[in-house]
Write a structure and sequence with these properties.
The complex is a heterodimer of chains A (about 160) and B (about 425).
Chain A: E1 2-10, H1 16-19, H2 30-34, H3 45-48, E2 54-57, H4 69-76, E3 81-84, H5 89-98, E4 102-104, H6 106-111, E5 117-121, E6 126-129, E7 134-137, H7 143-151, H8 154-160
Parallel strand pairs in A: 1-2, 2-3, 3-4
Antiparallel strand pairs in A: 1-5, 5-6, 6-7
Chain B: H1 5-14, E1 24-28, E2 31-35, H2 39-49, E3 60-63, H3 73-88, E4 93-94, H4 103-109, E5 118-121, E6 135-138, H5 141-150, E7 152-156, E8 160-166, H6 175-186, E9 195-199, H7 208-216, E10 225-228, H8 232-241, E11 259-264, E12 271-273, E13 281-283, E14 294-298, H9 299-302, H10 305-315, E15 325-329, H11 333-341, H12 344-351, E16 354-355, E17 376-379, E18 395-398, H13 401-410, H14 416-419
Parallel strand pairs in B: 2-3, 2-5, 3-4, 5-6, 8-9, 8-11, 9-10, 14-15, 14-17, 15-16, 17-18
Antiparallel strand pairs in B: 1-7, 12-13
Classes of the chains: A alpha/beta (about 160), B alpha/beta (about 425).
């Protein structure tokens, strides 16, 4: 499994209220949520994001609320992977459960800039910055997690393996 | 190797003699909770699993509290969906408007959580029940669905930070000031993935309402859970509210803690979190001149009876500042009724307060008190993120009910010592 795309870069503590503001939580439709993704921190995000693009952020990404709508909105917006220095724990769990790939890699976060083109290989954990010709090593996904992500999340994975 | 309080509870629920930090376990659940925002997603996922019944009709709680009373058609549809699910699955602990309250005030009040329980809730402030000596943590909708289907959840056993509380807080200092002080000290990711365990002589000087307010905000330090030692006050509370059996867990003498802080409660000043992070704290003596447009007193953090009492005590016989909007919302119908019987509502309404039905509404910018561009509010809620209560260019300052009520009288962030007699 691989991902390749252009990078959107953010700082510390990107919280779930800016990822998807509560005023849009009267629906749980992924396509609807995707329209407002990152609206309060980066109004141009939804206009410029393309399928496969990558979010790179600093520490404590996804802090705050337990709303699964946050990783759902990011995934539905077309983001292929989120790379951060650290993730808030509920977001971490939710992202895996809905099949949004996430990687913790402080070195990659330090070396990657907004607009860079980056490739990620989930089976090896290798993050390659195509623009800058640099490579970083993150923890690869174990096999079950790759299966879970390709199944589209925990529930599909469970029902497929029942 | 000794275990922390959290580790002991998790070990017991996983059927293990011992667990260590970092270990992956599967634990049996005593309660699975959801609200009107997170449950619709869980219902959809639950249907995909292919089971027809929830694991235990008494161990699931569904509380429509966020956008209720229904704020718009979409919110009404979400509530309808979960109401029908609760009815269809014969879920006993579904609470309609009229018998409801904000979930984290309601569950302890209804006796649905007791010491030693393991609780997951699809709401980040599920960590509130740690005040009762239970392990409780927020999860997402998919985990809620799996929990409802199987009665189990997987956890990575957390390491812990120990907070030894000593001394007695001064008159206008509450649990809210203590937890804001702690978050200011350790940061919004200071306890990331960890337990915060609260022990020490100072506990005796914190009421259950103080402790619930503190455990509630453990998530604002990134913690997996916050938990308090069980003492006489806990047991009194449990006796008054619950009939369920409970178990008291205490940390082993040789339990391992990654960090230890000693906090003398007598030195804590009323504390305010400035925009846009809960760890951006200043003492009341350092706030300067901050003019306000709105004051919000309530929420799962501070909508309990003691919060209503302190607000009414400060506002009684006075008037809120001209041009200021002051909204008070009790956390449950029972608290509402108690405030009514004690005459608190009359005192506050006479002072110029809007007294609301229980709802999470204003706290997350849902409804019942949204901020316009450039507006400022002081709130007894738990988050002051960008756009949390409305427009992305509005500002939220977090504080205790005493500070919020004092500010309601002056129209600027104020020290209760200055305005109260």
């Amino acid at each position: 499994m691989q991902a390749k795309g252009k990078v959107f870069k953010y700082g510390d503590n990107v919280d779930t209220d800016v990822i998807i503001p509560a005023r849009y939580l009267n629906t749980s439709d992924p396509a609807e949520l995707a329209k407002y993704c990152m609206e309060d921190i980066d109004a141009s995000f939804v206009k410029t994001v393309r399928p496969g693009d990558i979010i790179v952020a600093d520490k404590n990404f996804g802090s705050g609320s337990s709303r699964e709508h946050a990783p759902i909105a990011i995934k539905a917006a077309g983001i292929s992977v989120v790379i951060a220095r650290t993730f808030a724990r509920i977001f971490y769990r939710n992202a895996i459960n809905i099949g949004l790939p996430i990687l913790e890699c402080p070195e990659a976060v330090a070396g990657i800039e907004a607009g860079d083109t980056v490739e990620v290989d989930f089976s090896t954990g290798v993050i390659h910055n195509v623009t800058k010709s640099t490579t970083y090593q993150a923890q690869p996904f174990p096999a079950f997690m790759q299966e879970l992500i390709s199944a589209g999340g925990l529930i599909n994975y469970i029902s497929r393996n029942k | 190797m000794g275990m922390t309080m959290t580790q002991k509870i998790l070990a017991a629920h996983a059927g293990l003699e011992e667990v260590v930090a970092g270990q992956l376990i599967q634990a049996n659940l005593d309660m699975v909770l959801g609200n009107d925002i997170t449950t619709p997603v869980a219902v959809r996922e639950f249907a995909k699993i292919g089971v027809t019944e929830v694991f235990d009709k008494q161990k699931v709680a569904i509380v429509p509290d966020h956008f209720t009373p229904n704020k718009d058609i979409k919110a009404a549809e979400q509530c309808k969906l979960i109401r029908e699910f609760a009815h269809d699955k014969e879920i006993e602990n579904y609470f309609e408007v009229g018998e409801m309250g904000i979930e984290h005030a309601l569950l302890p009040e209804k006796g649905l959580v007791v010491p030693g329980d393991v609780v997951i809730g699809a709401d980040s402030h599920t960590c509130t029940y740690g005040a009762l000596g239970a392990f409780s943590t927020g999860i997402g909708s998919t985990d809620m669905a799996a929990g409802m289907a199987t009665g189990k959840a997987w956890f990575k056993v957390p390491a812990a930070i120990k907070f030894v509380l000593t001394g007695k807080p001064s008159k206008w200092v509450s649990g809210k000031d203590v937890i804001l002080h702690i978050i200011g000290k350790i940061g919004v990711d200071g306890a990331l993935y960890k337990s915060m365990e609260f022990v020490g002589d100072g506990l005796a000087n914190l009421s259950m309402d103080d402790r619930l307010s503190m455990a509630n905000m453990a998530i604002e330090a990134g913690a997996k859970n916050g938990i308090f030692l069980v003492d006489e006050k806990t047991l009194e509370f449990v006796k008054e509210h619950a009939t369920k059996e409970y178990t008291i867990y205490e940390p082993d003498a040789d339990a391992e803690y990654e960090m230890e802080y000693t906090i003398d409660l007598s030195t804590i000043r009323p504390t305010v979190s400035f925009p846009h992070l809960p760890d951006n704290t200043r003492t009341i003596d350092e706030v300067g001149e901050i003019q306000l447009d709105q004051v919000v007193i309530g929420s799962c953090t501070n909508g309990r009876i003691e919060d209503m009492r302190v607000a009414a005590q400060i506002l009684k016989g006075k008037k809120v500042a001209k041009g200021l909007r002051v909204i008070v919302f009790p956390a449950t119908q029972k608290i509402y009724l108690q405030a009514l019987r004690e005459g608190l509502i009359e005192q506050m309404v006479e002072a110029g307060v809007v007294f609301s039905t229980p709802t999470c509404g204003p706290c997350l910018g849902g409804h019942m008190g949204i901020l316009a561009k450039g507006e400022r509010a002081i709130a007894t809620t738990n988050r002051n993120f960008v756009g949390r209560m409305g427009h992305p260019e509005s500002e939220v300052y977090l504080a205790s009910p005493a500070v919020a009520a004092a500010s309601a009288l002056t129209g600027r962030i104020s020290n209760p010592e200055e305005v109260a007699e």
